[in-house]
Amino acid sequence: MTVGYIHSIETLGTRDGPGVRFVVFLQGCPLRCKYCHNPDTWQLKDGQKITVEQLIKKIIRSRPYFERSGGGVTVSGGEPTLQFAFTLELLKKCKEENIHTVLDTSGCTDPDKFRQLIPYLDLVLLDIKELNKERHLALTGVSNDKTLEVVKIMEKEKQPYWIRHVVVPGYTANKSNIASLGRFLKNKKHLAKVELLPYHKLGEYKWEELGLDYQLTDVAEPSTQLMQELNSILEQYNLNIA
Ligand code: SF4
Question: Is the CB of 168 under 6 A from ligand 1?
Answer without folding.
Answer: no
